[in-house]
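Appendix B. One record, verbatim.
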Amino acid sequence: MKSAAYAAVRSGQGVLLRKTADTASSAVCGAPHTAEFERELIAERTIAGLAAARARGRMGGRPRKMDRATLMMAMSAMADRKAVAAAVAKRLNLTTTTLYTYVNGDGTVKAAGQAVLEGTHRPGTAAKARSRRPQASRRQADATAGA
């Protein structure tokens, strides 16, 4: 059986054990919460791997449909008052949701579209910008509406 070195790290909830070698056995240390411990190790390795890939110039995630050229066409098409958003989106091979994420109905650019124009757009940021009410607030609103 191979042994491993463990380092105690203090956290807000107590003391966590952090593995300092790859060949560890929970029997060696008798660590409680081995599933939680393993999950943390996997998360750390995943984050380190993604950071290493970014350092090599690789960006993960699904490629964005909206690029600078498509955005410019969408802006000019939507500026026409007679334009129908569904037709514009279909012509650009987009959904209306994606179109409206980047461009307003009058053809002006939204924040996500501005990021594309400036070249600072990161995958996934447009969808995360939307905020939703917490579950508790919805329940409270339903309770007060029914009362």
